[in-house]
Amino acid sequence: MNALAAHRIVFGGSLVTLALGFAGCVPQEKYDAAVTAARSYEQQLGSTRDDLNTSRANEDRLRSQISQARADLESLQGLSDGSKVDLEKLRDAYDALSKQVAGMDAGGPLPENINILLASLAEQYPDMLQFDAKTGMLRFLSDVTFDSGSARVKDSAREVLRRFAAILNNPELAAFETVVTGHTDNVRIGKPETLKSHPTNTHLSAHRAISVRDLLVGDGVAANRVEVAGWGEYRPIVENGPRGAAQNRRVEVFIRPMTYDTTTGSWGGSNGETRPATTPSAAPEKDSTTPAPAPVITRPAPEKDPN
After folding, report:
1. Residue 284 counted as domain residue
2. Are residues 149 and 262 in the same domain?
């Protein structure tokens, strides 16, 4: 390309010189034609030079792309060779999670016989209980389980809890634990006598969960298989109105695969969870009509008069 360009430059210059040299002895038309031809060659020369520069730029860009592609290929090969162990770990973790999810399929995490027993119990007490087989959850409606502002379980609900405890003690649930969670609506506690025992809705929800837990433990359910929690008004299932909503005032009991190894006293049950070991209660506690202290809540004064 350089030789061609030089040749064209020399050739173009010669034509200009030739045209000027014969300007005085050739007809004007030939002179003008020679000048026009010289200018045309100059334009062609400029275009050729531009094409050459563009070609060189494209060549440099292609070389850079090839170099990057080679580097990417080498990097991918290195990852493929060096990450086999990591890929195997990820695959094992995925398999473990898949098994765990499989246990929570459409039939729920519970044995079919237990689903039948719980569904039957809920059918016998439709005004008090709701059962969801998909999640293994039994819901106690607070308005028929407790008096307003009280954490004491009504006498009419105690027989239901005794029958529920008998189901929890079924050998088919030996590898399962129970989580009792209390909920309220968003109406703040206003009565002074209620505030003495339950300063907030969170306290009230936790104390109600503890009351349910105490009755279950009193009926033979191992204390180290029952967990309690109180969510107060922060997990409603329907929108609260000016007076709250009855559906949000509830106690939910979830039955799930054991996360605590009662034989070794360590965490890491069927879901593979690892937590610091704690010492569980050794024996069931007696029935109590007042809430036991919550793990993270200061024990309120005993409730004397339900509200």
Report:
1. no
2. yes
At 117 the three-state DSSP class reads: helix
Distance CA 300, CA 197 (A): 5
Query: Which of 95, 94, 75, 164 is closest to 128 using CA atoms?
Result: 164
Residues 110-157 have pLDDT tens digits of: 999 999 999 999 999 999 999 998 888 999 998 999 999 999 999 999
Q: Do 240 and 159 belong together in one domain?
A: yes
Q: Is residue 221 part of a domain?
A: yes
Question: What is the rounded distance in angstroms from the CA atom of residue 140 to the CA atom of residue 222?
Answer: 21
SS3 of residue 29 by DSSP: helix
Structural domain range at position 52: 2-82
Count other Cβ atoms within 10 Å, centred on residue 218.
18
CA–CA separation, 42 vs 8, rounded Å?
8
Encoding tokens for residue 165?
């405890």
Nearest to 195 by CA among 230, 149, 232, 248: 149
Task: Looking at the structure, tell me whether residues 175 and 47 fall in a common domain.
Answer: no
Helix, strand, coil percentages for the chain (3-state, nearest 5): 50, 10, 35
pTM: 0.54
Residue 63 lies in a domain: yes
Question: What are the angstrom distances between the C-alpha of 102 and each of 253, 277, 296?
Answer: 21, 27, 34
> Which residue(s) pair with 230 in the sheet?
182
| CATH number reported for the structural domain that contains residue 206 in this entry | 3.30.1330.60
Give the helix ranges, DSSP H, for 109-219.
112-124, 142-145, 155-168, 192-197, 201-218
pLDDT digits (tens, 9 = 90+) for 178-212: 999 999 999 999 999 999 999 999 999 999 999 99
21 and 156 belong to one structural domain: no
Nearest residue to 235 via CA among 216, 254, 248? 248
Q: Let me know: does 140 contact 114? Beta carbons within 8 Å.
A: no
Q: How many domains does the chain have?
A: 2
